[in-house]
Amino acid sequence: MNFHEVRFPAALSFGSLGGPERRTEVVTLANGFEERNTPWSHSRRRYDAGVGMRSLEDVETMIAFFEARRGQLYGFRWKDWSDYRSCRPSAQIAFDDQLIGIGDGITTEFQLCKTYASGAFSYERPLSKPVAGTVLVGLDGLQLQESIDWDIDLTSGKLTFSHAPDEEVEITAGYEFDVPVRFSVDTIQTSVASFQAGDIPSVPVVEVRV
User: Fold this and answer.
1) What's the pTM?
2) H-helix or E-strand containing 194?
3) How far is the C-alpha of 116 from the C-alpha of 118, rounded, in Å?
4) pLDDT at 208 over 70
5) What is the average pLDDT across 165-186?
6) Do the Cβ atoms of 75 and 210 come closer than 8 Å?
7) Is the sign of the CA dihedral 195, 83, 179, 47 positive or negative?
8) What's the pLDDT at 195?
9) 179 vs 115: CA distance, rounded Å
């Protein structure tokens, strides 16, 4: 896949607009009731990087990043400041933030994920772009050591244990993560005059499946 393991400048993504998008197909029946379905098993994020532009230097940095990605051709990492950690915003990352699997004595590879819960319902979001140096892992309430007990693939979010966790053992992890995205346009229009007057460019980006 065409993807560059480089993050869009975090200072420019700070303050940007965006969030999760779902696709729901709604059919209204003759009796007024609705049938609702979705072809997507996972949500997709959209953002507007232009909102974070505060100076002409910021615009220059953004244009250089856009050109290096060849517009929509190459994906890249994006820091979603509203949702980039395994824990709550007010907490510190811990090895038991998220339950990512249950041991069966055979499986050694597990996908990082984050669970969003509301009442009795929840959604498990797979995460493929953990941030280097932030991942913590535990088994059954005990923290493990990286490179000795486990390793992480920073390009896929797959966690691999040196030995398969025993049956019924809870596998937990904590981490920061980026969102894999691409620019959703091949043209960016900027104007020095309009920018100085407070008119910022629109730079839309959209999450990609990796």
Assistant:
1) 0.92
2) helix 192-196
3) 7
4) yes
5) 97
6) yes
7) negative
8) 58
9) 16
